[in-house]
Amino acid sequence: MQQTTEQNIKVAVDTAVFTIADNHLAVLLVQMKQEPYVDLWAMPGGLITQEETTEDAALRMLREQTGVTDVYIEQLRTFDSPQRDALHRVVSVAYIALVPSADVTLQTTDKYKAVQWWDTGKLPPLAYDHPRMIDKAIRRLRAKVTYSNIVWSVLPETFTLSELQHVYEVILGKPIDKRNFRKKILSVGIVESTRQKQAAAAHRPAELYRFTHRLLKYIDIL
Amino acid sequence: MQQTTEQNIKVAVDTAVFTIADNHLAVLLVQMKQEPYVDLWAMPGGLITQEETTEDAALRMLREQTGVTDVYIEQLRTFDSPQRDALHRVVSVAYIALVPSADVTLQTTDKYKAVQWWDTGKLPPLAYDHPRMIDKAIRRLRAKVTYSNIVWSVLPETFTLSELQHVYEVILGKPIDKRNFRKKILSVGIVESTRQKQAAAAHRPAELYRFTHRLLKYIDIL
DNA sequence: ACAAAAGTGTTGTTACTACACCCATGG
DNA sequence: CCATGGGTGTAGTAACAACACTTTTGT
């Protein structure tokens, strides 16, 4: 239900892009050039255009600002404190994205001083209300991996069960029992064996698996 | 991260207000007067003002349009299809509210033809993208009652366990075993006995309970 | 032969489901 | 004394948690 009133509010999107880097959960940030936020870091984002959806805007900005293309993305929530941006009233729709670390060829644009992955445990000083956004994004991500199959979006086409387990351990931030994990993950049927083995490694080669569906499915996992 | 661009977008809120009416889950709707939506029904809502948050706006509109005041409210998600409103580009932040049925003294304002509760199983023709919003709201509500204590917001200060069970049955749309329900609900400790009995009824009087906390808590319930 | 990760079962405990009868009160 | 909803326990089943050793490969 809408009525007409005077209003001059801008609509933006901001995206928390996550990946798995070695042994930590990493988030993609850009370092700003403009006042009043010079040198602070922020999530990639910006104002939407008149005709695009917020999701399309988020995808476009990821492409333009970071070179990231094939991503899983979902809406997190909208942040709308009147003071969240120092210059204008800006309502921001926050998104979460997950990318396979391999995919990421970071672009450095002249709009920012830098574009970089940051360990979520050691974040730099952040602009706007981005600390809170990132906190909410991590909570949602942790919850969601336990009742859906979204981890497909950080893994390559084929992978070993140990790699899969490692992804869960990094996102949840705690160790998982190997035998229980394998039993559970196989029983819920989100992955299937390729009947192929990992290429040469200095140890017994692992069997390679793939996801049965590379689409969001809701299933109790951990 | 924001940059300046030409943009003329309005920001609105829409709230799905739920209550328990007899044996069904009911949602509060207003019947519209303006073109092009004459006679269609919609959730209470409207444009936010320059200085208020979307949550404050949602609460204000509930007060103004329906007389509803003491409510539990939470953000659902933002709906932003460019075509969702026929006249302007309007991005709407949708909220869910829960009210005790007793509280509700519906106001009829001259802005609408009518304000009325509707059984969620038999909804009238709806304006905008409100069918989808209501569908999402019901799903979220069903999920949330199973892992939080939010049902406190539809019950009076004291209540019987049968009344509590009835609320769950209506929201979830399925019967629940009485003995298992009581065992579980008492074990998670979200309610406590008042050591008082229900006033005269034509049957054995039930013990009255109250919620230990009338704030959102996350606990596995059903 | 050694290092390094892969792979595999069992047992105890806890939570969930299904199910039927007696109790207290008002009319 | 009858109708109405209130209140209670148990047994079988399924899910979860804890735990250690053998296998396969490369060097």
The top level CATH class name of the largest domain in chain A: Alpha Beta
Whole-number total of structural domains of chain A: 2
| Series of H and E elements of chain A | EEEEHEEEHEHHEE
Task: Provide the residue-averaged pLDDT of chain A.
Answer: 93
Distance N to C terminus of chain A: 41 Å
Main sheet record of chain A: 7 strands, mixed
The number of E-state strands of chain A comes to: 10
Relative helix content of chain A: 10-25%
Runs of chain A with pLDDT <50, length 5+?
Answer: none
Oligomeric state as shown:
homodimer
CATH architecture of the largest domain in chain A: Alpha-Beta Complex
Kindly provide the radius of gyration of chain A, computed on alpha-carbon positions and rounded to a whole number of angstroms.
19 Å
Instruction: Figure out the total of helices of chain A.
Output: 4
Based on CA inertia axes, which overall geometry of chain A fits?
Answer: elongated
**Greatest interface by residues involved:** A-B, 44 and 44 residues
Going by helix content, strand content and strand pairing, the class of chain A is alpha+beta
The CATH topology of the largest domain in chain A, please? Nucleoside Triphosphate Pyrophosphohydrolase
Report the β-strand fraction of chain A as a percent range: 25-35%
